[in-house]
Amino acid sequence: MSATILVTGGAGFIGSHSVDQLLSEGHHVRVLDNFSSGKKRNLPEHPRLEIVTGDVRNRADVDRAMDGVERCLHLAAQVSVARSVSHPDESAQHNVMGTLQVLHAACRHGLSRVVYASSAAVYGTPENLPLSEGARLRPLSPYGLEKWINERYASLQHQLHGLSTLGFRYFNVYGPRQDPQSPYAGVIALFVDALRHNRSPTVFGDGGQTRDFVFVADVARMNARALFSEHQGVCNLATGKASSLLDLIAALNTLLESQQVPRFDAPRSEDIRHSLGATARLHKWFGLKEPRSLEDGLKALIEHDARWTAQGPQEGQMA
Ligand code: UD2
Fold it and tell me: Rounded to whole angstroms, how far apart are CA atoms 207 and 228?
C-alpha cells in the first residue's frame, strides 16, 4: 500500500538514496531540505516526488512539510563531527532543536511513525566489540551527544504521546553521491577520489584502524523497511564485519587496477581504533541478512562514478 512520506534532508547522501528506494516501492515522497549541503541534482524528476525548501529548525516550515503526511524519515542534520566540536551551539540547534521540531510536529500532525538518523558516534570508544545496542554510551563529541539526546527525546515522545519511533545508529555509510570535496567526506569517498586521480591516499595513523562500512543502498532499504514496522527504540545499522584502512586500499587498488601506496600522517586526535556493530537486532527486526560486502559495494561505487562521468548525473543515479 502506498503512503505519503516526508524525508527531511532528502537531498543529501543517505536521504536521496532513501527517496529513490521509497519511490521505487510506489510511495509518494515529500522532501524537506534547506539545501545547505544537500543537492537538487541528487533527486530525480518524478511525478510522486515533491520538494519543499525549508529548515527543520523552523516550525512553520516543518508544519508545511508535514501536512497530509503519514510517516517521516528524519535525516536532516549538521553531519560534521569536527564542526560540532568547533561550533557546539550551532550544531545543537540543528541536531537537537531540529529533531525536537520534527518529533513534536509529528505528534501534532498525528503521524504514525518517525524513523530518524542516530549514529555509532553515541558509543564513543568501545569497551567491547562488537558494539551492541545495550553498550554503555560515552560519546566523544557534541555530535554524538546530540544524537543520544535525540534518542532520549524520541523515547520520551513515545512515552508521553504514543509516537512510534525508531533511531538507526548508522555506522560508516559509503556509496555513490558522497562528495569527496566536502570537508566532512568519509574515508572511502576520499580514497576512491585519490586513487582515481593517481594520488596517494593519506592514512591518519598506521592504517590498522578498522570500521564497519555499510553500503548506502542497504541503509536506504532498511530506512524504508523501518518506516513500515512497529519496532520501537534504537537499532544499529551495520554489517557486523570490520575492515582496516589498509584492507580498503588493497581492495581499491585491485578494483581500480592501480598500485598506490598510502602516505602516512599523524593520527587524528579523538580517533577510535576499532568500530564494529552487532547486527542481531537488525537481523531480527528488519531482516538485513546479507548486507552488501565491502568488495561488492566498492565495485558498485566505482561503476556508478564511471557512468556519472560518462553520462551526467541523471543517468548516473542508482536504481
Ligand atoms: C564516522 C562518521 C561520523 C561519526 C563517527 C562515529 C563518516 C564519514 N563519519 O567517523 O559521522 O558517526 O563515525 O564513530 O562516516 N581517515 C584517513 N584518511 C582520510 C580520512 C580518514 O586515514 O583521508 C581515517 C580516520 O582517521 C578514521 C577512519 O579513516 O580512522 C574513518 O574516518 P571517517 O572520517 O571516514 O569516519 P569516522 O569513523 O571517523
Answer: 40
Grid coordinates representing 163 are: 509516537
Ligand 1 atom at minimal distance to the Cα of residue 245: 29
Asked whether residue 316 is domain-assigned, the answer is no
CA of 51 to the centre of ligand 1 (A): 31
Q: Is the CB of 140 under 6 A from ligand 1?
A: no
- The pLDDT tens digits of the residues spanning 112-169 come to 999 999 999 999 999 999 999 999 999 999 999 999 999 999 999 999 999 999 999 9
Q: What is the CATH number of the domain that holds 107?
A: 3.40.50.720
Residue 318 resides in a domain: no
Number of structural domains (the chain) is 1
153 part of the active site? no
69 touches 5 (CB < 8 A): yes
Provide the residue type at 185 as one letter: A
Could you tell me the distance, in angstroms and rounded to a whole number, from the CA of residue 197 to the centre of ligand 1? 21
Range of the domain at 179: 4-311
